[in-house]
């Protein structure tokens, strides 16, 4: 998935669930700009990724396929 397609998927998922970058920033005590960097792929921000996924009710790996979910078993 291209960065643009991934960004659009993340934004669409957030919008669908009524989650804003400002809400995530406030909850995680970071700037809204930092949340934007994570959403757009300019920063990794595992904690922010988890916060966004939790707020949307999806797994981190659903929004960021490059990241494994800690609760999911890794294939041997």
Characterize the structure shown.
With 76 residues, this protein is an all-alpha fold. The protein has a single domain (3-63), classed as 434 Repressor (Amino-terminal Domain). The protein is 61% helix and 0% strand. The chain is built from five helices and no strands. It is globular and about 30 Å long. The model is unreliable at 72-76 (pLDDT under 50).
Q: What layout of secondary structure does this protein have?
A:
Layout: H1 3-16, H2 21-28, H3 32-40, H4 46-56, H5 60-63
Helix pairs in contact: 2-3, 2-4
Short description:
The chain is mainly α and 76 residues long.
Residues in helix, %: 55-70%
**Mind telling me the C-alpha Rg?**
12 Å
The CATH topology: 434 Repressor (Amino-terminal Domain)
What proportion of the residues form beta strands (DSSP E)? Answer: under 5%
Number of strands: 0
Number of domains: 1
